[in-house]
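Practice problem: predict the structure.
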Amino acid sequence: MTRIDFYVLADGARGDRLGLACRIAERAHGDGRRVLVHCPDMDLARHLDRLLWTFRDGSFLPHGLVGEVKPAYTPVLLSTDGEPTDEDQVLINLSTEVPEFFGRFERLCEPLDRDPTVLRAGRTRWKYYSDCGYDLKHHEVR
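Answer:
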């Protein structure tokens, strides 16, 4: 069963959920895991692509947009539709909806910031996963 972790920025924490997603991807990659970041649209995917180059001085996180890189050589992929379907280790969800393909992943990460719309959508997803019987973990991030 997929492990589901919600990461919520604490009150007063700097940054937003996109920066938090970069940190989660960096950590997963550092642990030797492949990462698929699910973006709800290409505009957000392109924005995150740029952010992954600059979010931390001196870091390099090999990443790219699905369709523009060779997935076999790119451990962090940004996708709008769950492709490629053979990715199954870590999914970071930046959509406000439950990704219908999340069940194939070993781990699902749900980064949230203090934006009321983001928090409300996160609570809805929490309830959905909980109602489906998943054991959920909550992490407050500073």
